[in-house]
Amino acid sequence: MTEWKKIMAVFCIAIPLFTTSCTPFVVDETSRDVQNFETEPAENLIRVGFSQLGSESKWRRANSISIQDSLTVEDGFFLQFNNARQKQENQIKAIRGFISQQVDYIAFCPVTEDGWDTVLKEAKDAGIPVILVDRQVSADHSLYTTWIGEDMRKEGENAGRWLARKLEERGRSRDKIHIIELLGTRGSSSQIGRSIGFDSICDQHPNWVLLDREDGEFTTAKGQEVMTGFLKKYKDIDVVVCQNDDMAIGALQAMKDFGMDLYSDRKPIVISFDASRQGLEMVTKGIIDVDVECNPSSGPKLAAVIHELERGHAVAGEYYMDEKVFTIDNASSYAASRSY
Ligand code: AHR
Prior knowledge:
CATH topology of the largest domain: Rossmann fold
Oligomer: single chain
Bound molecules: alpha-L-arabinofuranose
CATH superfamily of the largest domain: Response regulator
């Protein structure tokens, strides 16, 4: 550790009252505006510009915390963190800001898959390695160094496979099954991957009928709004697939407001993703039937990959996070210890 880093580390340990982790600045997700770049000199630290796509869900907030808690001064980083508030244009603007400041690395969670080619090329031309976190892009892999994230397609397949087993268990494997889907942000790789994965299992069951799918934007408010519309439109819904817990909570509220007994076996089967604490608590109560985990703790891997690159080592082209599937049989032991 250099002298400067040692001084910073001591400073951070000695004054813990000001910040929970010793990042150069604390991000307040609710009040920071889009263009917010730290300008302090960061000599000897690895300068990383990070563009987070927003703070739409508990998962997202946990992901931001994981990044901020991992890219700390103690570990040799100077993190410039930017919240794009769901807008790709804000992410592109932030990335261009990082390029003009000549940061050492750029990392970002792309809000949608498409539309990154130009800015990725600009980063490449500037010689700045780019690391994608969480979601993926359709741009060519040669334009970025690596990706650290979740296997969205497998998550969707796991949800579909679980449903097939559940219907079999209930003696309904030959019945017509009416399904509705609340999608996450349309065009995001999480939405696309989960839909492709779930559809691939649907295709193996001609008796599963996908009645409708609509964008619930990964938020509780939109989830509730979309589900209310579905309940008015469709009398017979057997399965509700919510592509995250925040939307599931909104959908369940809509079902309750509609007069459904959420504790009854006759309510629609509810499938959700993320496995947040609130989601898992609902699984333990039988309100959500299965919660497919999406792991937000990619910060430590991001820090480790950057350190590897700093040492001049080659890194893999992609890194997958570990993920589980939770039902009433295993959710309770995880719910209490969940950070998000
Ligand atoms: O890309 C991961 C997804 O984005 C999570 O499922 C969702 O909660 C988040 O907002």
